[in-house]
Amino acid sequence: MLFEKLLINVGLVVLGLLAGIITVEVTLRLANYNPQISTDWQLKPSMRVLDIDLIMTHPKFFHPEYYGDPNDNLTIIALGDSFTMGYEMSRNESYPRLLKNLLKDSLESVIVFNAGVGDTGTDQQLRLFKKFFLPNVKPDIVIWQFHRNDIYNNIVYPNYKISADNTLIPLDARYNWAYQRLQLYRLIPLPHILKEHSYIVNVLMHFYEDRKHAQVPENYDMDRLKQYGIDKVQLAIEEMERLSRKHSFTVYYVLIMPQDEYMIAENLDRQTPGSRCPSKSDFNYRSHGQLKAILSNQETFIPLRVTNDQLTEEKGLLDPIISEAIFLPPTIDAAAKGCRHYNEIGYEFMARQIASQILLAADE
C-alpha cells in the first residue's frame, strides 16, 4: 500500500513537471521568444566528443587504430580548422588527400593525417597535436593552417591561459561555456529532433552565450580582448617551434586568404545585405592582416593566394572572378558571401601550393 502511494506521488510530481514545462514552452512560443544561439551545429549528435582538455573534438582521435603504423612513410600531419577538414567536401576532395596524391608521384611513401577540426583556433589545434598526435605519431612535417577567426576562437574556446612569465598554461575545459552547454544539452532526456525545436532548450542553451569571455584574464579588459587572442597565437607558434626542434619535424605555416579579401581586391562590394562577414566594428576586422604579420616572421610561411592568371592557365577560365571561382556557392555553404569555404578548385590550388613548397625543400 505504501509503495502504491509512493508511485502515485511520483507520478503526480512527474505530471506536474511536464505540465509546467509545457506551460513554459507554450508561453515562450506565444511571446515568440527564441533567442539565437551561436554554433548550434555543435549540439548535433556525433559531431563532437567532450574532452576535458580540448573542450570538444572529433571522435576519431580517441581510437588507436586511426593512427595505424606509419612505418617508414614520410608522415605529414595537417593541422587546422574546417578548411583543413574539408568543409562540405568528400574525403577525396579535401586538401590533405589531394596533397598526398600530389606528393606520392615524387616521393615513394607518404601518409597524411587530416587533423582538421572545424571552428577551432590555435589553442585547440596545438592541444590536439600535443595530446593525440605526438604520443601516437612521429611526424616529419606538420602543416598548420591558419584563418582569421583563430584569434577569436582562442578567446571563446580557450585551451590555454597566459602565465605571468608569458607561457601557455593548460586549462581545464570543464569550466568552458561550450563544454558546459553541450554537457547540459546531452543530459536533457529528449530526442535531438525535439530538443533542436524546443524554445525552452534554446533559452537554456542561450544562457551560456554571456559566458564566452569568462576565462579571459582580468588584465585583458574589453579594449584588449583581441590582443589576448593574438598573444596566444604568437605563443602557440613559439611552442610549435620548440616542439619541432625537440622532435625533429618541419612546420609549414599556411594562411587562408578569406573570400571577402578577394572581393575587396576585385573592387566588389565587401558586404551584402544581412552579411555576417567582418565590418569595421566586428571582432574579426583586420584579423587576416594581423595573422599575416605574425606568420611572415616564419621562414616556412605559405600565404595562400590564387591569381587570375593561375585560374586562366590551369583551369581555362577567362576573366574569372576569384571570389566566386574558388569558393562554395550559397546553395552549399550557408555562410554570408565573403565568409565561405573553398570549393574543389580552391582546395586543389591549396594542395598544389603546399606540395610545391614541400618538394622544393626535398630537392635542396
Numbering strands along the chain, what is their spatial order in the largest sheet?
A: 4-3-5-8-9
β-sheet strand percentage = 5-15%
Here the CATH topology of the largest domain equals Rossmann fold
The biggest sheet amounts to: 5 strands, parallel
Count of runs of 4 or more consecutive helical residues? 14
- Our Rg estimate from Cα atoms comes to 23 Å
Share of residues in helices: 40-55%
The CATH C-level class name of the largest domain: Alpha Beta
Give the number of DSSP strands: 9
Averaging pLDDT over every residue, what do you get? 90
The span between the termini is: 88 Å
CATH superfamily of the largest domain: SGNH hydrolase
The number of domains? 2
Task: Describe the 3D structure.
Strands 4-3-5-8-9 form a five-stranded parallel beta sheet, with helices on both faces. It has a two-stranded antiparallel ribbon with strand order 1-2. It folds into two domains: 1-33; 67-176 and 215-363, Rossmann fold (3-Layer(aba) Sandwich). The protein is of the alpha/beta class. 34% of the residues are buried. It has helices spanning 2-30, 82-85, 95-103, 122-133, 150-156, 177-187, 192-195, 199-206, 225-247, 259-265, 287-295, 308-315, 322-325, 344-363, and strands at residues 49-51, 55-57, 74-80, 110-116, 141-146, 160-162, 168-170, 250-255, 301-303. It contains 14 helices and nine strands. Helix 3 crosses helix 14 (344-363) and helix 5 (150-156) packs across helix 9 (225-247).
